[in-house]
Amino acid sequence: MQLRYNYRAYPDAAQRRALARAFGCARVVWNDCLRDRREAHAAGLPYVTSAELSRLRITQAKRTEERAWLADVSAVILQQSLRDLDTAYKNFFDGLTGKRQGRKVGPPRYKSKKDTRQSIRLTTNAFSLQDNGTVYVAKVGNLKVMWSRRLPAPPTSLTITKDSSGRYFLSFVVDTEPDILPRLETDAGIDLGLSAFAVLSDGTKISAPRFLRRAEKKLKRLQRELSRKQKGSKNRAKACIEVARQHARVADRRRDWHHKVSTQIIRDNQAVYVEDLAVSALGRTRLARSVHDAGWSAFVGMLEYKAALHGRTFAKVDRAFPSSQVCSVCGFRDGPKPLHVRQWTCGACGTVHDRDLNAARNVLCEGRRIVAAGRAETLNACGAPVRRAHVPAQRGEAGSRRKGQPTQAGIPGR
Ligand SMILES: [Zn+2]
What we know:
Number of strands: 15
Helix content: 25-40%
Distance between the termini: 24 Å
Bound molecules: zinc ion
Radius of gyration: 24 Å
Number of helices: 9
Strand content: 15-25%
């Protein structure tokens, strides 16, 4: 399976300029090619092929006066930008024809200089890992990188991003073998909620840690301050950066915490079931803020790939399944409950239920049933199909690779 490994990079002033140039060129190629395809479509002409665009918008464009600066950056970046546009189109078309499952994706959009997140993608012929611990990037130079953990194998591609708070990150894609953990007899149903972050079917309640809530409070305060600053003023620009920094800090902490919790759950259980929440639908309701803050979908994504990585079973329970209405003891369907009802008594057997715990137990039963019926979306790693996707690796797991796996030489691990 393919995993992503992210590291912070510290380019110097000249490298930052070179990267800004590369971000700009990648964006221009994307926009030029997108415009050609849109115009052809509007004029009723056939879809412009990538080969044609590559010749016209990269190779030939370099020879024109207004696009001569495209030659200042690595051609790999430009080709990759075009390839990414192709992928965006493919996802869009597959969504239209029903070949692609899940949420519909819109057609590709133009990129703006003002986008908060800038990125370029490189294949192995445009970057290399140096013995002194730096990463060489074509036409940019040797980037200083903070190797927070070891890469388990030579990377196959690299994405360089700059986020809204001005930080640079290198994200490597690495092919890894699953790291199967010893079999356990335990399994768990998980109810994701707002009162507690998660409730497990064995009764464990996991609430968001205090430091996360504190960081979120500070973010709210900064945002209030920002809204009082005059538009266009220097103080507003400063406050903007401060808000972006705090956002990044909160997101980092939340992600680290999600990693910790998801690793623990996957290590402790042979099978894990969660309710497939309609997060995007909930996000449009009055609960929007707390829903997005909780970051459920990122967390569920972590559970899913860690299950695949460690040979555990993972399944999502259909969101139409009435986990909060059915009594987990006798199976009586007690009817819908408004969100504020935290406890209820079963009308048939008289059991007093904690809403979330009862839901988690129901998710467990339903999950077991789904897996037994062979309808699990992701089965365990023993030969069963596992979704191939780029997923972020967890912190620290790189040190526990299986024996005999190649390790990239020259990368100082900690
Ligand atoms: Zn009952």
